[in-house]
Write a structure and sequence with these properties.
The complex is a heterodimer of chains A (187) and B (554). Chain A contains nine helices and no strands. By secondary structure, chain A is mainly alpha-helical. Chain B has 554 residues and is α/β, with parallel strands linked by helices. Classes of the chains: A mainly alpha (187), B alpha/beta (554).
């Protein structure tokens, strides 16, 4: 490294700072990005346990209308985690939903009693039955009603609890007695 | 690498041939473009399948790319599978023999073309195929062609819904019987009895036959068969003799490697077989290897299908088994097939949506949603209609040079349009299905839009005349003496029945032919090209003689 090249690098750095960070060459940009860029984190980081918990608690209100069994909670949580890991856009929608629910609750949405959660969902018209034809609303709320709510509903109804509602203890993916399909279900 | 025989593809046809050849002491290399799907991961695959993701999908980008031509979009995605086992990994498991009349449409009805073999020729191989796959069935189909022996396994019992359909069919005078399937109704072949997991596209127990379980391990155990996975064949190259000299393949890194062999067998499915022949053009075969007839890629068929659905008052308990147990073949071998195709009725054991689907489609939530799901679940019954499709030269697999796959080869272009003959069969099928549904007490009867089946048929048709067909009665290419093209691509007509059992039967027959050729009883060597042609000519004369005996008036 010569003195001339050092001077040139300093001048380039100064000019880049004046012109804005985006114009800096890659070798200068490395290691100097501001830390804690939240937009980058929310797009790439996996959902936290708190966020998944908020979504499962939301599913209790919109999908089941009641508390979920431990098995159904695990099923919905696993569905949310898998979908989030495979689809970045879905991860963002989940994250926005969890964030909004906590803001509306004023604390952790998941920590509220189910009746309080129901009130919040109804007051802010977050479930899809609340949406009037042609109604326009905030983009995040639309994403919740149009995507996250149906997704959580399907996840819950595909769980053992969902099948139990129609009287099944064995269902696609859970093997059973081969003769069962030949007769009506007992009861 | 060098072998006596190089087989390209380890699916229904390729895996079966590898076992037959291995047992005959013939050194065989199988090049499979997909992976070896570890059976221990079936549980994980089931989870993916239940989330509507395809666990069998190719991992290489654009490996399964294709483009669409024709009036109807024939979507190849999810309709074929790469990997050891091929499409038997995800098939329904329905193992029906074709009807004798399916082999002789021209002679019997004056349409399409006859196969160069008859039902009697293939019957012993059907029996061997049923034994190899473990087919469960009952001899209660009054329209079935002659059988030389019983089904290896007892039939699966009729379902609760079948009871409703059976009563309805009896009322309106339509035959109703068991649907034969390659699935264990009792333990068989070292595999367990089916335990009704209802995810048959990914069978978690191995009760459904797939050649990764039924054939490949046994083939490898002979010590004569080597299966090379994730090895995609790019083209076949001719030697100076005019025969195929080597198969050029590559892995994900795109580095070309070669296999030499005395005989090559294309067993990659009707689409990829045709595509590989077209990709293997040369000075000797400017329009594609073995394509002197111009028929390579032509006459593509796939049975058009429609579901007829009706609403019933009481729960019929769907989704407790993943396959159908009953059918009617009354219309699959019609007396008059001149103007209208044959069709088959499959009585579905599941229709109308799972709780997840019903809830997902509803706009309700909470307790109202719970009541809705409870009252709607199980209130639909359905019949699936599969119609025969006539061979039409305009329906084809060609190369689309505008798009290339992972290996920079042009992707296949699928041109598919059912014709008037096929539509007429579906229309008649809908009328029959409506009659049965009404007799079963169903209301709100409706039909889905036409969708082609997952079976790809035609593209290198069998025949006696090299001017109009690609392979002979033993599936050997007319134009290249050491090349065999196996699978449903060799079918002359589609039948209304699923093709897999016929694919397997023909593969066993072709393997037997190759084994006899490579290991003649007299101890002589492999017949050369000239001798091969003499054999083919003799076989053609034999064909003519058989047809004259069968249809003396024609």
């Amino acid at each position: 490294v010569t003195r001339r090249s050092l001077v040139r690098r300093f001048l380039l750095c100064a000019a880049s700072t004046a012109a804005g960070l985006a114009h800096r060459p890659g070798w200068l940009r490395a290691g100097t990005e501001p830390r804690g860029d939240t937009s980058l984190d929310s797009a790439t980081l996996p959902l936290s346990a708190t966020e998944v918990e908020a979504l499962v608690s939301f599913a209790e209100v919109v999908a089941a209308g009641d508390r979920l069994s431990a098995e159904a909670r695990r099923h919905v949580a696993s569905h949310v985690a898998e979908s989030a890991s495979e689809d970045g856009a879905q991860r963002m929608r989940y994250r926005e939903t969890a964030g909004l629910l906590d803001r509306l609750a004023g604390s952790r949405f998941a920590a509220l009693a189910i009746d309080d959660r129901r009130s919040i969902v109804a007051r802010h018209r977050l479930d899809r039955s609340a949406m009037a034809a042609g109604e326009r609303s905030d983009q995040v709320v639309e994403g919740i009603r149009g995507n996250v709510v149906p997704d959580l509903i399907r996840a819950y109804w595909n769980s053992p609890d969902g099948w139990a509602v129609v009287g099944y203890s064995a269902f696609p993916g859970r093997c059973s007695d081969l003769a069962r399909y030949t007769a009506a279900e007992p009861g | 690498m060098t072998a006596d025989v190089c087989i390209i593809g380890a699916g229904a046809a390729g895996a079966v041939m590898s076992l037959e050849l291995g047992r005959a002491g013939i050194k065989t290399i199988v090049l499979e473009s997909g992976p070896r799907h570890d059976f221990a991961r079936r549980g994980e695959y089931v989870r993916q399948y239940l989330q509507h993701r395809n666990p069998w999908r190719s991992r290489l980008e654009r490996q399964d790319a294709f483009t669409i031509g024709g009036r109807v979009a024939y979507d190849l995605a999810g309709r074929r599978t790469r990997g050891v086992g091929g499409s038997t990994l995800h098939w329904e498991g329905y193992a029906l023999r074709f009807h004798a009349s399916d082999f002789a449409l021209r002679s019997a009805h004056g349409i399409a073309d006859d196969w160069p073999i008859t039902y009697d020729d293939i019957e012993p191989y059907y029996a061997r195929a049923e034994a190899a796959l473990g087919v469960a069935g009952s001899p209660d189909d009054p329209f079935a062609s002659r059988r030389s022996g019983p089904f290896p396994l007892p039939a699966f019992p009729f379902s609760y819904t079948d009871g409703m359909f059976a009563r309805a069919c009896s009322t309106v005078g339509i035959a109703f019987h068991h649907l034969p399937q390659a699935r264990n109704s009792v333990p068989y072949g070292g595999r367990p009895q089916c335990s009704a997991c209802s995810t048959c596209h990914v069978c978690p127990t191995g009760a459904k036959a797939s050649t990764d379980l039924t054939h490949v391990p046994a083939a490898e155990t002979t010590g004569n068969v080597r299966v090379v996975t994730e090895a995609t064949v790019l083209r076949l190259q001719l030697a100076r003799s005019g025969e195929v000299g080597e198969a050029v393949y590559a892995r994900a890194d795109r580095l070309e490697q070669r296999v030499t062999a005395r005989i090559f067998v294309l067993a990659a499915g009707a689409v990829e077989n045709a595509r590989l022949l077209l990709l293997s053009s040369s000075r000797a075969f400017p329009d594609g290897l073995a394509n002197g007839s111009g028929a390579v890629g032509k006459y593509f068929m796939s049975q058009p299908s429609v579901d007829a659905l009706g609403r019933v008052e009481h729960n019929v308990y769907p989704y407790r088994v993943g396959f159908s147990t009953a059918m009617s073949r009354q219309f699959a071998a019609r007396a008059n097939r001149q103007r209208q195709g044959a069709f088959l009725l499959e009585f579905l054991n599941s229709a109308g949506g799972t709780p997840g689907e019903l809830a997902g489609r509803s706009r309700l939530t909470g307790e109202a949603l719970r009541r809705h799901v409870r009252s709607e679940f199980g209130r639909r019954i359905a019949i699936r209609i599969y119609s025969e499709q006539l061979p039409d030269r305009a329906n084809s697999i060609t190369l689309d040079p505008r798009f290339t796959d992972h290996f920079a080869n042009p992707v296949p272009r699928v041109t598919y349009s059912p014709g008037r003959y096929d539509d007429a069969a579906l229309d008649q099928g809908k009328r029959v299905a409506r009659t049965i549904l009404e007799a079963a007490g169903a209301t709100d009867i409706g039909f889905t839009v036409m969708s082609p089946s997952g079976h790809q048929i035609g593209t290198h048709r069998m025949g006696s005349d090299p001017a109009t067909s690609v392979v002979d009665r033993n599936l050997r290419a007319h134009d290249v003496a050491n090349l065999y093209l196996v699978g449903s691509g060799a079918f002359v007509t589609s039948s209304a029945s699923p093709p897999t059992l016929t694919i397997v039967a023909l593969a066993i027959r072709a393997a037997e032919h190759i084994a006899a050729r490579l290991r003649p009883a007299s101890g002589g060597g492999e017949p050369g090209l000239h001798a091969g042609r003499l054999v083919q000519r003799a076989e053609r004369l034999e064909d003519r003689q058989r047809l004259l005996e069968q249809f003396p008036g024609r």
